[in-house]
Write a structure and sequence with these properties.
Elements: E1 3-6, E2 13-15, E3 17-18, E4 26-28, E5 33-38, H1 55-63, E6 76-83, E7 91-101, E8 105-110, E9 125-130, E10 137-139, E11 147-149, E12 153-159, E13 166-167, E14 175-177, E15 187-192, E16 200-206, E17 223-232, E18 242-245, E19 248-255, H2 258-277, H3 281-291, E20 293-298, E21 305-312
Parallel strand pairs: 1-5, 4-6
Antiparallel strand pairs: 2-6, 3-13, 5-17, 6-16, 7-15, 7-17, 8-9, 10-11, 12-14, 12-16, 15-18, 18-19, 19-21, 20-21
Helix pairs in contact: 2-3
């Protein structure tokens, strides 16, 4: 296994969405590790303070080619990463070994007609918020004495599909803009491989975010991380996307309504329990009612909302074998 360093440059990032037509920013073998750099905030860079704009990011904001601006979404992603011999129908495992903010500042945005209360607020508000990297804290509102611990994670982790201009906002079975705050290291995310090589991209760093992401964003932050990419030919039976953290197994549902997203996450949890623990459908359903916890992942990534189910490992008699 090799280790790679993938810096964010005009040649290794893409903006606005996913595309099957982008050349790989990096080619790796299954099992390789990557230190990856991502920047966030291209749509707001002209309003940003100097500490938000290191030279490499400013060059991307000003010089990124039209060919790498693939759709109308707001996310700047690093990739795609091509995994040798990864084939459609297989499963990509993304191991998130470490994640850390690159800069001592992030931003939060609310916009009219968007967010969890789209009709309540009539003007856009953009706030750049200092991050105390040494203490691992954010004070918000600044000067209020309210201290929030950093919980950094990547909001967007996804593979390409056949489209050449898939918007980066809605998540789906391909992953994408999942915005699940539980995907903090160490964790594993399992995604379906749809195209040869998987063409995996990553970005949308959040230093912290509440369940629901209700105003529209988390604390959007340029972020780096160490990841490992592995392909599997024997895991296609899993209810994907699926995640494992140090303490939980997580199923995910995405749909236009929270009801439908919940039913999808619940159905996938039933599948996981039946396939891995050999429970009957009835026992799996009842266990979900007794000990599985369902959360609103995000309610703002129109047109798709997200719900996730959390299976605590502490209740299990042993390890789940995939």
């Amino acid at each position: 296994m090799a280790h790679h360093i993938l810096k964010a440059t005009c040649e290794t990032v893409h903006f606005g969405g996913f595309s099957s037509q982008l050349p790989p920013a990096l080619t790796v073998c299954s099992g390789d590790t990557i230190t990856v750099e991502t920047f966030s905030g291209l749509p707001v860079y002209q309003q940003a303070p100097p500490e938000f704009l290191p030279p490499a990011f400013l060059e991307i904001c000003q010089c990124l080619s039209k060919e790498r601006r693939v759709a109308a979404g707001p996310h700047l992603l690093t990739g795609p990463i091509y995994i040798e011999e990864a084939a459609p129908g297989e499963v990509l495992e993304v191991r998130l070994n470490a994640v850390w903010p690159l800069l001592p500042v992030g931003f939060t945005l609310m916009s009219p007609g968007k967010g969890g209360l789209p009709d309540r607020f009539g003007q856009e508000v953009l706030k750049f918020i200092p991050i105390d990297l040494a203490a691992g804290l954010v004070e918000f509102p600044v000067g209020s004495g309210i201290k929030l611990p950093l919980e950094p994670f990547f909001g967007t982790l996804g593979v390409a599909t056949a489209e050449c201009d898939r918007n980066s906002i809605p998540p789906g079975d391909y992953g994408g803009n999942i915005d699940n705050r539980l995907l903090q290291p160490p964790c594993r995310l399992f995604l379906p491989i749809i195209l040869p090589g998987a063409l995996f991209s990553i970005g949308d760093g959040h230093s912290l975010q509440g369940d629901g992401e209700v105003c529209l964003t988390g604390l959007e932050t340029s972020m780096a991380g160490e990841i490992q990419l592995l392909k599997h030919s024997t895991l296609s039976h899993l209810p994907l996307p699926l995640a494992e953290t140090a303490t939980d197994w997580i199923t995910m549902g995405f749909a236009a309504t929270l009801d439908d997203a919940f039913q999808s996450a619940l159905s996938r949890m039933l599948d996981l329990l039946q396939k891995t623990l050999k429970l009957s459908p009835e026992d799996a359903y009842m266990l979900c009612s007794l000990g599985i916890h369902f959360h609103i992942t995000q309610a703002v990534n129109a047109p798709m909302k997200g719900v996730h189910g959390v299976l605590p490992k502490a209740i299990l008699p042993g390890l789940i074998e995939l």
